[in-house]
Amino acid sequence: MRKIRLWAVATCSALAVMASSAAQAETLADALISAYRSSNLLEQNRALLRATDEDVAVAVAALRPVVQFVAQSTYSFQRVHADATLVTPAGRSNVENLNSSVGLTASMTLYDFGRNALAVEAAKETVLATREALVQVEQNVLLDAVNAYVQVQLAQSIVNLRRNNLGLIDQELQAAQDRFDVGEVTRTDVSQAQAALAASRSDLTSAEGDLVVAREAYKAAVGHYPVDLAPRPAAPRTAATVEAARQVALRAHPQVRQAQRQVAAADLNVARAKAAMRPSISAEANVGLDDEGQESASVGLSLRHTLYAGGELSALYRQTLANRDAQKANLLQTGVNVAQNVGIAWSTVEVASAAIAAGDEEVRAARTAFEGVREEATLGARTTLDVLNAEQDLLNAQADRLTAEAQRYVGMYQVLASMGLLTVEHLNLGIPTYDPAAYYNAVKNAPATSSQGKRLDRVLKSIGRN
């Protein structure tokens, strides 16, 4: 009974250690969350988006009056000839004046055929296009994290294979040495085993180097070195067929949506360039006070119409037409590229799946062959070289199988990214995400007062940028 109790205690302790280790293991979801939170690339593009948001505020400001405080001082000097009775010895008299004034000037465009309003709408479309670009960056960051996670596990598995292979070859060398000692084999068999052992050590060193490289790539993608990675979860669901995936991609992919917004902005810029050829009406008001206490005030309307500008306005209009054509062509080509990427990613998964199935057969056959050759070698029907070659074939088959599994797993996420769905929201990672509308809503009306400024400060603080 005492032995049974000791065995039970030992078993419980071992299970507790295993459970604790499993609880501390970093999952793929943990890695994706860390990559999303620590990505400098995402921070850069979020800042670029906020800068683009300010373009809307700049365009809105053009619809409002401009009020300026003006203070000026003018000094004038004049030398004049005096009357003969008043002539100075030099024959001349000097007149000097110093005039100063302060005032306020206000001006506002009343009507410009919609130029400024179109500028606001074009800026909004550019903001929406930049938001889609940010989604694409998010996809790239998450895909890099998935690839880094899988590559570390693959590299570690290859290292384990190489270590096992080194142990087996060491056993073969010892067996060859023992058979040589009793005269069953020649020195050639021992030398072959020694050469294989040296090659195995070199392969292990190379595999360990690949693991170091994979760990560095993981740190760059996720933000820290891997410590204990949990087994990979099931691959994400994508689409039933490649055509269904293409249809989703052409609707949802951020690059397609970005190109659509860019076309919309280009259309608005064409309308702006056309409106720039028409007149504009503005109002001006001035109040002032000079150094003698004289007050002044004026109000006026002005109509401005450019009759000739050296061909600049026509050139700008033609330029917007060309830009619009370029953006439309870019939209079409983006659709072609997105559809192509879906097909490539889908094909990668299918090829990897076929490689896995073939790899299973290859591993089974190679293991059977290795075990048979080793048994035959003990009976003298096979040489040491035959055993080493069979063992190498088994190692290669196992490594190829592991590589195919890794390629298929990453390929599933590549399909998801090619469809435009590799985002924190779609993966249901359960973390707060960056709200691109928060900063835009705070600045879209071009805030200038203290109360609006405080609100903007709160927005900046909430996104961690103040």
Automatic annotation (TrEMBL):
This is Outer membrane protein. Belongs to the outer membrane factor (OMF) (TC 1.B.17) family. It is found in: Cell outer membrane. It comes from the Bacteria. The keyword Ribonucleoprotein does not apply. Keywords: Cell outer membrane, Membrane, Signal, Transmembrane, Transmembrane beta strand, Transport. InterPro entries: OMP_efflux (IPR003423), T1SS_OMP_TolC (IPR010130), TolC-like (IPR051906). It comes from Cereibacter johrii. Residues 1-25 form the signal peptide. The keyword Membrane applies.
